[in-house]
Specification:
It contains 8 helices and 12 strands. The protein is α/β, with parallel strands linked by helices and 230 residues long. A hairpin with a 2-residue loop joins strand 6 and strand 7. It is 42% helix and 23% strand. The protein starts with 6 loop residues before the first strand and ends with a strand. The protein has a 5-stranded parallel β-sheet with strand order 2-1-3-4-5, with helices on both faces. A 4-stranded antiparallel β-sheet has the order 6-7-8-9, with no helix packed on it.
Length: 230
């Protein structure tokens, strides 16, 4: 482990979860700090200066949502990955809209969590600019020339279809809520069913099997995620 190792703060009141995370993340060469409640988490934010936070929504002294809102309201920009119950779709959506970077549902695998962490860190590092050509699998999107290709063949998209894909590309690997997409593509002046229609049309054009998408992935009850770049 080097002085440049990424520091991760785990905020969770369940000792078995903290132990699982500590062991798994330490094995991936992350430096790990732990907080069992919001009070300790706020103290460690100052003393440890982490690069990323893993935050459980169910804390004993303050809700995870309130802690997240407090941090974002104070201008804190470091990545926050939420741990949540698999059935708490409303809680996940609320956390994402408050500024969380991503989420993982319990029970989770360390490989999945590791991937979410890498995506969140990468997005922060790329915040000042984006690559002009995005590539994942056989899908490529030239954000400068506005050219979309699948397996080298150019695909013609409508303006709204391209806008949806562009937003997904800019946040590739990260889940985007329905509301986020509606606000950025339609200024919020439509409903989620309209978005679903356009995503279905987009999949018909870029997916080899639209009903089994490889690129535009559905996060049930939450939104959509574009497959991370190669």
């Amino acid at each position: 482990m080097t002085d440049n190792a990424v520091r991760i703060l785990i905020v969770d009141d369940e000792p078995p979860i903290r132990k699982l995370l500590r062991v798994g993340l330490s094995a991936q060469d992350y430096l790990v700090s732990e907080a069992m409640n919001a009070k300790v988490a706020m103290e460690l934010m100052i003393s440890e200066r982490p690069d990323l936070i893993i935050l459980d929504l169910g804390l004993p002294d303050m809700s995870g949502h309130d802690l997240l809102a407090k941090w974002r309201g104070e201008g804190m920009t470091l990545p926050i990955v939420i741990l949540s119950s698999r059935t708490d779709e409303a809680g996940i959506v609320k956390a994402l809209e408050l500024g969380a970077d991503d989420y993982v549902t319990k029970p989770f695998g360390m490989n999945e969590l590791g991937a979410r962490i890498r995506v969140a860190l990468r997005h922060r590092l790329q915040a000042q600019g984006e690559k002009p050509v995005f590539q994942t699998g056989e899908l490529s999107v030239d954000l400068v020339k506005r050219i979309v290709k699948v397996a080298g063949r150019e695909v013609k998209l409508s303006p709204k279809e391209y806008d949806i894909l562009r937003i997904l590309v800019q946040h590739a690997g990260k889940v985007l809520t329905h509301r986020f997409l509606l606000e950025h593509v339609w200024d919020g002046l439509t409903d989620v069913q309209y978005l679903r229609v356009y995503v279905r049309q987009l999949r018909q054009k870029i997916e080899s099997i639209p009903d089994q998408p490889r690129y535009i992935l559905t996060e049930t009850g939450v939104g959509y995620r574009l497959a991370a770049p190669d």
